[in-house]
Amino acid sequence: MPTLPGFRMPDFTDFDPLAAVANASGASRTGAAADLADYRATISDGVVRGGVLIGTAAFELATIGAELIRKAAATPAIAISPASLLGAAAYVAGLIADAIRDALRVLNALEKDLRQVAETLSSATAAAQNRIMPGPGPVTEKARGELQRLASLVAPPAKAAAQPAPPEVKPASAVAPPPPPEPAAAAAPPPEPAPAQESGSAVGAAAVEAAKSQIGTPYVWGGAAPGGFDCSGLTSWAYKQAGLDIPRVAADQTVGRQVSYEELQPGDLVLWSGHAAMYAGDGMMIEAGSPVQLNPVRTENLGMTFRGFWRPTG
């Protein structure tokens, strides 16, 4: 399944405070970064959507072909009279015509859907290419010049430190015998282990409850709010309700740490190259299918590469 390579936008939360130190504003830079992240999410969703459409069409075409073979095989292989032979041939010809008509219907629908995806991708790509990136302002240029000036200054070499005088060596006869060793103090008991932090599991459980509240919501490509979700839109929205921001695109949601199946706890993400789901406990996961629903945990999804189980809370 084609998708964009994994990528996570840098954290720009400290940009505005740094700009304020220089009596400037970082709004243009943070705005540009946010726009680029949105463009990438749209493009990635479009690539995944196109792959899903093609995979679904291929499955439908294979089903049409298998059904044609099954029906044709049920036709009597040999007819006693020439008239019966002609009738059997006409019946098989009708089956082939029906199969061709159904296949054309699937291909026409695929062409229409892919054209819509292509238009969305073209629009998002053009917008990303036309986005004007802010260049260095006068404050930046002034700071750069000052840094270059300071770097050109050569500090005088430091004076070599005076070497300490060697210690006086006493004659062997004057050396006192070493004192007897002190009895070893009893080792202090090891500290008690710190209790495991519950914040991660609490956040994960809250994310699961948020996701469960949307069961039955229809699938909407690019949807990330109640009323319509796609797969990664549901997981990112649910974690946002729990107070934790994670990347919007499934390919970028491999955050926190990877866990094994035996370590799964509610809120852990089940990720493929183009799909995302959330572990809900008791061997079940919640995902934005058609509609949002609970399903048993699996590692196969339309031939996509399985990227493992991930705990965003670390």
Automatic annotation (TrEMBL):
GO terms for molecular function: cysteine-type peptidase activity. Keywords: Coiled coil, Hydrolase, Protease, Thiol protease. GO terms for biological process: proteolysis. Residues 100-127 form a coiled coil. InterPro entries: NLP_P60_dom, Papain-like_cys_pep_sf, PG_Endopeptidase_C40. Residues 156-202 are annotated as: Disordered. Residues 176-194 have a biased composition (Pro residues). Residues 201-314 form the NlpC/P60 domain. It comes from the Bacteria. Belongs to the peptidase C40 family. This is C40 family peptidase. It comes from Corynebacterium haemomassiliense.
